[in-house]
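Box 3.1 A note on notation
Throughout this textbook, protein chains are presented in two layers. The first layer is the amino acid sequence; the second is a token string describing backbone geometry. Keep the layers aligned when reading.
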Amino acid sequence: MQRRDFIKSSIALGAIAVTPVITFANSESKSAKSRKFIVNYSFDIKYDSKEFPAKLWNPLPFNASYQKVKLLHFSGNYDSYNINSKNDYDANTLFAEWKKSDKKKVLNLQLEIETKNRTVPIAKIKRASKANLPIPEDVKKYLEPTAHIPTTGIIKQLADRITGDSTDRFEKVKKVYLWCASHTFRDKKVIGCGIGDVGKMVHQSEVEDIYKNGYYGGKCTDLSSLFTAIARAAGIPTREVFGIRLGKSHFSKALGKSDDKGFATISTWQHCRAEYYIPGAGWIPTDPADITKLELVEELKFNDAKVQKLLEKYLNSWEMNWVGFNHARDFELFPKPAQYPINMFGYPYAEVEDDVLNYYDPNTFEYKITSQEIF
């Protein structure tokens, strides 16, 4: 299993306009197929009272072979801060705290992110699946249920119904992926990315009816979590990956866009994907939720050729106009907030006097995230 690498700063920063130079990881030589983005975060935390304290936890990207991250600039008038990954999922976190006062609570962060499209070859996956190697101990946690990801009861019955008599791990994954993509739809009424509460999505008592006629709406977290729950119940280690779209998709504007100079305001572009694990092949990227987004935005049917092309592509790949933050579900942030556990960590999270600010609404929180692709 590839461990997420993150090198913390040991520099003690002052409170105002300090710019440390922190390298999260050594960047690999740039591939001709790589893309580079400069991403800026700007926070100006708002609250109803004149004087208030504030705490902010912001997710930071991990480093991997397909995404490299550097911190270029960091400043603000915080009273204290730290960069850490002290939680059950090693989720990289920028934490900042402001004491009670009437001063503005501001923070600015600039990242350089270099990405490469990620694909695990089908032939490699098939070979590994047929070898039927044991699952590593550190991966087995992604077979376990969480508060929002059940793996027993009706979910286990549904997984058994979908996978049938298949014993090959990859064959199971393909059946679950196809079932989820064809039995879900993107519901634009859902706020943000959704909450991914699978137990509430699948509550009917008749498994046969769910298998044949169930049709589930939601956003990316809901649909990726449904895939995750069913795959885990089928014995396949699976996890959501929370992140954000950075810019233009070369497949469809539905999956990411920017202006003609590569600039985009991405404050509401958070997106949840998924990975499944097959020993010998490792973690394999997938994205059943974007199938439904393509259908909705381009007004296409599931059987349309373009949808089917993306369906085939996203069984084992990600287009990297996106960056991943973490795969954390139902866990405690560090330092521990007043309200815990947190369901997921794809958005900035802040508390003011124990009240959670609405991270789905950047304008009232307040934060702004922009991305500039460097050509």
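The chain has nine helices and 20 strands. The radius of gyration is 21 Å.
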